[in-house]
Amino acid sequence: MTMSVDTPQEQVESIFRRNLATFAQNGLAMGSAIVVLLFVIMAIFAPWIAPHDPAETDLFLRLQPPAWAEGGDWSYVLGCDALGRDILSRIIYGTRISIFIGASVILVATTVGILAGLASGYLRGWVDVVISRIVDILLGFPYLIFAIGLMAMMGPGLVNIILALAYKEWVIPCRVVRGETLATSQLEYVEAARALGASDRHIMLKEILPNILSPVVVVSTIRMAHVIILEASLSFLGLGVQPPTSSWGSMVADGRAFILDAWWVSTFPGLAILLLVLAINVASQGLRDAFDPRFAE
Question: What per-residue string of b and e applies to 202-231 under the rule 16 or more CB within 10 Å gives b?
Fold first, then answer.
């Protein structure tokens, strides 16, 4: 009689499948994940979904109300803004900006944070001191004010807003990775790899990193919602993506002067921000509960 023993790879895949099944059983988290997926699909297929050109202006349609209100037209379901541009089309195209900037910032920040956190937690010594002090200094600045200062120096633009937000965002995954690395570097399999003469690079990237990715992914998912809000805030202040590119934050700002008479200009893009950020937060909480053992029941 033989007994099969799962390989480490098979064990990791089994744990992943079990965590994924746990996440799927969370109805609220799954529903939120579906909402996020719908936003992603809307961003990808915006040219085919949007009923009108988001930059096309028609002053005869200036501040036209939503279709169900008096004076509305079902060709412009959510109405038009002060320049006669279709609000629905601009919201659909604005999804591209919010998701692209959010994903880009998180990708850059997480990559930098992982590398810095691994080096800080494993190498320690002066490397840990330098990285930790940089992290402490950056955490001392309010995030939005820090981003506003950087945007004022670099100027508005898509690339600049990604850099401005990533300059400080990396400290969050860095702290998570550093803490996880400090704990993991003392475990038996890391000590065994070190005793066999494995290089520091091999130990950090092959032994430690695969075992600490779950909390990093969860934290990065949660932070994406925060980045989307920051991007909308910068665009609201005129420091983000510039017209005629559609951005939810600038759309909200465009409707400030008409909020009493044409509430739809600011309200609908504001609701889009609320729905996407709420869906990401709820889905990420579900991921945390399913994939981070410290939150398991």
Answer: ebbeebbbeebebbbbbbbbbbbbbbbbbb
- Give CA–CA dist 296/22, Å, rounded: 10
Instruction: Report the alpha-carbon distance of residue 283 to residue 135 in Å, rounded.
Output: 28
254 lies in which domain range?
26-295
Question: Are 268 and 248 spatial neighbours (Cβ–Cβ below 8 Å)?
Answer: no
- Which CATH number does the domain housing residue 186 bear? 1.10.3720.10
In a domain, 219, yes or no: yes
CA dihedral 49, 55, 57, 63 (to 10 degrees): 70
The continuous run of DSSP H or E covering 170 comes out as: none
| pLDDT for 114 | 92
| 42 pLDDT higher than 90 | yes
Question: Where do the DSSP E strands lie in the chain?
Answer: none
H helix or E strand, kind and range, residue 207: none
> Residues with Cβ < 8 Å from 162, sequence gap 6 or more?
101, 104, 105, 108
Q: pTM for this structure?
A: 0.85
What distance in Å separates the CA atoms of residue 159 and residue 97, rounded to the nearest whole number?
11
Domain-embedded: residue 246: yes
- Summarize the chain as % helix, strand, coil (round to 5): 75, 0, 25
Domain assignment of residue 8, yes or no = no
Mean pLDDT of the 68-96 span? 90
Domains contained in the chain, number: 1
Using an 8 Å Cβ cutoff, are 176 and 215 in contact? Answer: yes
CA 216, CA 266: separation in Å to the nearest integer?
35
**Does 18 map to a domain?**
no
* pLDDT band at 90; cut points 50, 70, 90: very high
